[in-house]
Amino acid sequence: MKAIETHYAGCRFRSRLEARWAVFFDTYRIRWEYEPQGFVCSRRLTNWGSEDTFPYLPDFWLPDYGMYAEVKGELTPPVLTKLADAVASISDNYGGPLDNNDFLFLGPVPRPGSGAVPIRMRMHKGYLTGHPWTGKKVHYKWQFEIGNDSDGVFTTPEVIETLMGQRVWRSLRGHAAKFDRGYTAARMARFEHGERG
């Protein structure tokens, strides 16, 4: 199904979901830039050592956090595998083009009170690692491994379970509650019939 282009804050977003996350950022006065730069990525996790590349354009740059944010409404194995390869390629601390800038993974906007928090990801010493994002600028100890490039083998069911698994989010209910105001604003933003947010 094709996403509906949406106008908000002077930007033309590819989808309403992206615009809703911009509303979320604005609620907390988090500065953002929409699609500022694209990259050529390798299939680092799924086909290590191959010359196969693909273009990738992250949805948001969060300059105060030194972090990219990627919105994914469709949570299928191919979509999440491509995301993992892109993060592994771009945020690599061994010569990646972003000097180890993290990625924030954003799916459908959660319901307030759900306990869900976005996942922050980074490639570090051959491992794609993640941690539920608490809204802080500082780095935390990485809570879980999403995949590694040691043998070029990467299974997508693990990606889905790890990135979307409530078992990760449940441990952070206190942190998640502070996002409820942003989730409410994002879900209530109306873009139908020419409205602009």
Protein model, in words:
There is one protein chain. This protein is of the alpha+beta class and 197 residues long. It has one domain. Helix 1 packs across helix 6 and helix 2 packs across helix 3.
**Strand coverage percent:** 15-25%
Cα radius of gyration in angstroms: 16 Å
Backbone shape = globular
Poorly predicted runs are 166-171
Structural class: alpha+beta
Distance between the termini: 22 Å
Helix content: 25-40%
SSE arrangement, N to C? EEHEEEEEHEEEEHHHH
The total strand number stands at 11
Number of domains: 1
Return the average pLDDT rounded to an integer.
Answer: 78
The strands making up the biggest β-sheet line up spatially as 3-6-7-8-9-10-11
Largest beta-sheet characterization: 7 strands, mixed
Number of helices: 6
